[in-house]
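Milestone M4 deliverable, item 7.
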Amino acid sequence: MPPSPPIVWLRRVCLDDYGYNLALPALVIASVVLSEAVIQRISFTEIDFQTYVAQADLFIKGERDYARLDPPNGSGPCVYPAAHLYIYSFFHWLTDGGANILPAQHVFAALLTANNVLVALLYRHVGLPPLAVLPLILSKRVYSIFLLRMFNDPIAILLVYSALLAAIRTRWKFSALLFSFGLGIKMNVLLFLPGLAVAAFVYTGIKGAISYVTLIAVVQALLSLPFTLHDSRAYLSRAFDFSRAFLYVWTVNWRFVPEDTFLSTHFAKGLLALHLVLLALFFLFRWTAIGSQGPKWIVHNLSNDSRGLGRPAQIVILCTAFTSNIIGILCSRSLHYQFYSWYFHQVPLLLWFSKLPVIVKLLLPVTLEWCWNVFPSTALSSQVLLACHVVLVLGSFTVPGIAAAQPAPSLELHADEDEDEVDNLLSTDDLPIRKQTIEAEVKSDTTSALALAEEEENERQEALQRLAQTRRAKAAKEAKLQKAFRRRIATRRRVLALSGKLSLLLRPLLVLLSIALIFVVPHPRSPVSKGTYVDENALQPGQARVYWDYFDVTYADMLADKVTSLSGASSAERADFVYTELRSYGLEVNRQDYRYDDDGSHSHEPALSGTNVYARSATPRIDGREAVVLTASWRSRWQGENDPFAPAENLTDAGSIDARGRINVRGIASILALARYLSTQAHLSKDLIFVISDGHLEGIHAWSSAYFGSPTNGLQADPVSAGGSQVWNAISIDYPSDSFSSLEVQYEGFDGQLPNMDVVNTVVRIAESVAGGMPVDFGHKSAKSLLKEPVQRLADQYGVRLRADVEYELGNYENGVRAALRQVGFGVTGQASGPHGFFQRHHVDAITIYAVPATGPYGFFHMGRLIESFVRSMSNLLERLHHSQFFYLLLNPRRFVPIGTTILIPLFLSISLTISGLAHWFAQEKVSKQLREDVLSSLGQIARTPGDVQPETPTLSWYRDQLTSKYLALLDGENGVAGKLDRYADALRESMRPIAATLACVGWAALVGGGVLSRSEVLFAGLSGPTQAEKNLVAVRSGIMLLPAVIAVVVRSRCTVHHARRIGSLLIAFAYLQAGMLVAVLSVLNFALAAFLALAAYAALRIASGRPNPPTSTASTASASVAAASVASWSGFLRGAAVLVFSPIFWAAVLHSSFGGKEQSELIVGIVTHWKLFNAATVPIVCLAYLPIVLQAQLGAFLRV
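Output delivered:
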């Protein structure tokens, strides 16, 4: 049933060009009525209009210096080109100097109506339906910009639309004139210029484009002449100020960016670079064909001269100009509310011609309107607005481009039949002249008919000869192309083969380089190390005067005696003492009780519950937003070994060792004395938080988790009161003995985290200058040399005397190795070297100062001055430390290795692992290809079609096509062809790499790793002593270690030996690739753990990936082959057993046995404690990532037997 006449008419009005006859008058009426309603009902909001009128008043009075066009009580100086002043001079006359703004509002209402009509005409020219004009009258923000603010933006945009209308009507000079007038009002019009200039070049040639741009510049020069004659620099710097920075408070598009970032020059340069990149991309690939055709496209369009433009060209011109503007909008440093008028009318056109989903086209204008009506702008509205702009730019990439609109040369289509081609050739060979000649001859003499037939026959023969020549030339060209194609494929294969060989040579070189770096990096004087430095000038370490004196030392000694008397007290009694002391200093003191549900340890019993005490000293100079934390744990890391104050006969007595750690007597006394002293200092610019935590690490973990709002599972802790300050720096004091000989700076955090190196360097500089030149080190020096003394003994055996500088360098190198191994050890185990590690998790630059117990010469006086100077340096900061290094390897207090060098060790190994994995993968592809070729060759040789060229990378479907064609050629008409085809197709399928089975094995390894992690007692139980339950774990561990062999037996029983070997090879390939990816990711997070796992995984996989066993030989060499197979089988089993050495399950079993020492057991206990209590990542990484790799290597080795 056909639609009714009203529906047909409605469709015609809404969707056809006929509808514009009604839409344009309706648009004018609606604009006038709505504008008048807005003017009458909504009061005018003064923002810049009176300033514009006042600037025009100064111009009318004769002021021509642009630097002085700054009226009193205005919103700022004139920052717009000359035409802006001319326009608002008219409004100055119309409104009596701004006293009566109603006439100006009516003028802007007329401008709004004219603007809508111009946009509707543009829509009509490019074929948009009349219904598209409806959104033009529905924007609340646009009415506000035109009628209630009367900015200059709508006037400039109106002139741009007029220029575009003139351009699509091929009135380019008039278009340039209008465009330049718009540019003379506001500089944002320049955003349209890149697209318009490209369009002018395409449709008017190089001369037209140059004249277009030149006319714009000339008009600008004429408009600005009154001001440039007076002071051209002042005019250009004000009217076209490209470095102008806007206020953060008015931005609409970047509200979610921090103000410091918004105002930074780096942010502005980044947006400018993005703008240029986007323009270049659109210029190369959408606006022109340079991206596909190269410079010849420019040469082809140099002399274009379009007299008339069709609708496709008009669409392209508008889309190009609008896209150029939208790109500028996206990359604008700041958008104010009036800038919405820059592109509101362009959105419907761009969405109409884009290839975005319909739902996006419908929702985008509504979302934009919402974003521009949120006042003031919020982070959410800015983010949504940015997303809309990004979608709009992406959609603009799909609109018609200039290159696509240019007509392409048509290709003549010829018939396949010879006679038709001959007729075509004859029909194009002066046919009109020949027909006239024939007619004249027929009319003059009938005997010429025979001559004409003979002539036509000759011409036909010549045409056939030309056709034959054309075909021969075409065949020769095709043969040449086929030869070139084969040569290109062969060249690519040779290049790939050469690259593969070079990569295989590169693999051991990278491993050797990594090992060489391991030995070179620790040397403090190697070229890869650098001298330490304090990068942040505000720190000024050691420059501030400190006031800590011996009166404070006496008080600290008294506190130390009190703390000593509490060595056997309960946690509550200790907390009461600390609480009372801090309360007596007038500080705000609080307690925090905590309890751990699971300690995760199986050796000794740490304090699983306790009470922390903390106090806050408010500084009157600030509002409490920033703070520095000073903390001391009740227990020290020192357990009492080598006690300098113990009797000589008890130095090695095990009874003097406290496994929980000695009481941190003087560390706690130092914090209490410093709290009393520093709370009286009024020159600090940050609050001080003093924390006395229970236990060694447990208490400060509970306090920091509650303070920073990151509770962990198994921890129950009271919330922290009086928090909320941003903690930038923290320092922990570990001072267990009466005096000390040196300071040990502990800076290693959890999972390889490090503080900003300026913190470490500040402490080192202060210790050298303020505190009497105390020695500072990064680890306890061993009394026995493991390098220098053996080398000296070896030299003495051969009668060689080492020079003094050689001995000095050997000592330096050994110390560097010890320092590097110390930091790497903490990184591998994931442990923190002190309580400071919990602060580093929350981006707080923190360290622990450990006073090495000794009989002197340093004590409270030096420690107090050191801490006071450190607090003074941190108090100088106005922002967080960010200049110096965050990743480094410290060799001594004066030398370090930057991360750019140390990260090369795991990265080189990662590349080598990845190359090895790819080599195994492509080796299996080579095997698959050979098997497929064998299937084809079993059918014999057949002639190939001359045009048949084997693909560069033949696919399985290509081989199937070849198989089918060979059967059709060899077995034409034979019965049973289909069945044989199926059998050979199955053989081809079997030649594929067994990826599914391999992935199943990979999944099995991952499940085993997850199971081990969930049942951690498989790894860590039984370290404290054997029990009946712990003895049962021996069977579990043995079962896991034997599981790869069992899986290998199951797999080999379900497939052929060859298939099992291929699965094993692919397993090893996947293991190599997994290891490479794991190391690459870890290297930027924890380079120590990454390097350790890389070395272990590479060794395990290198053992597992030995040559697979050779296939069985013929019967003539049966005895020799049996012997070789037996040897190869044993070697394969040995490889699988050797890989077991790199399994963490194996080492857990060894440590559980009598071979495990006490120190190794305590190390494992520390690792698991840090995982279960403090969420260190080493155990999960080993179980979920490294263990599956080792299991895959074992299984692959067994399958390749």
